[in-house]
């Protein structure tokens, strides 16, 4: 099952777990209420036929997907890409990732500016809402292979913080104040 925890404020290697002392974990339902981040468990070995994924794709209109491998061996300009992924940013569209192999971390901000670290492993599908400040890091294994899903042609533009005046951010903050009660309801 997915693990979520409040991060410390250390600026050491981003690939470390960065637990507070003592560690403070968050339940999955609380992650959604605090951030709007959604989580699903998918059969990564047969994701093309996974019922949950098929339903999500139809309901949310995910019509395009591709695959990315993040490792020093496979990712061109590896060091600079990792820095870019770890820079706090937001997107105007949801960020949908299905982990096929490997492990990593998605960090998201809650309404009190705390970093929440979400550990992702094989079979985890995570949906990061448009307008939330977040970042990504590999862990010490330095490898992850994911499927990325998009509504239409991929638009993957990162807007680094501050981006509070963007419409997607304003909409996100409004939904956050409402605890995401009506967020993504079809």
Structure write-up:
With 186 residues, the protein is an alpha+beta fold. The chain is built from 4 helices and 11 strands; from the N terminus they run βαβαβαββββββββα. Strands 2-8-5-10-3 form a 5-stranded antiparallel sheet, with helices on both faces. The chain has a 4-stranded antiparallel sheet with strand order 1-7-6-9. The longest helix has 11 residues. The relative contact order is 0.23. The model has no long low-confidence stretch (mean pLDDT 95).
Q: Give the helix level as a range of percent.
A: 10-25%
Separation of the first and last Cα atoms: 26 Å
Radius of gyration: 16 Å
Order of helices and strands: EHEHEHEEEEEEEEH
Low-confidence parts lasting 5 or more residues at pLDDT below 50? none
Number of helices: 4
Main beta sheet strand tally, sense and closure: 5 strands, antiparallel
- Which class of secondary structure composition applies to the elements? alpha+beta
Number of strands: 11
- For the residues shown, what is the average pLDDT? 95
- Shape label: globular
Q: Bin the strand percentage.
A: 25-35%
Strands side by side in the biggest sheet: 2-8-5-10-3
Task: Record keyword descriptors for this entry.
single chain, 186 residues, alpha+beta, 5-stranded antiparallel β-sheet, 4-stranded antiparallel β-sheet, 4 helices
């Amino acid at each position: 099952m997915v693990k979520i925890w409040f991060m410390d404020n250390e600026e050491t290697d981003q690939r470390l777990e960065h637990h507070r002392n003592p560690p403070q974990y968050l339940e999955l339902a609380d992650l959604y209420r605090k951030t709007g981040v959604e989580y699903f468990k998918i059969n990564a070995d047969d994701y093309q036929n996974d019922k949950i994924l098929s339903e999500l794709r139809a309901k949310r209109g995910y019509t395009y997907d591709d695959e990315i491998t993040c490792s020093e061996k496979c990712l061109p300009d590896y060091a600079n890409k990792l820095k870019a992924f770890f820079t706090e940013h937001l997107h105007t569209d949801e960020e949908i990732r299905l982990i096929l192999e490997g492990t990593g971390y998605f960090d998201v901000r809650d309404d009190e500016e705390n970093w929440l670290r979400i550990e992702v492993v094989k079979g985890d599908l995570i949906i990061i809402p448009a307008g939330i400040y977040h970042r990504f890091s590999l862990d010490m294994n330095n490898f992850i292979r994911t499927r990325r899903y998009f509504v239409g042609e991929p638009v993957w533009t990162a807007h680094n913080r501050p981006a509070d005046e963007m419409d997607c951010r304003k909409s996100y903050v409004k939904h956050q104040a409402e605890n995401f009660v009506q967020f993504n309801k079809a």
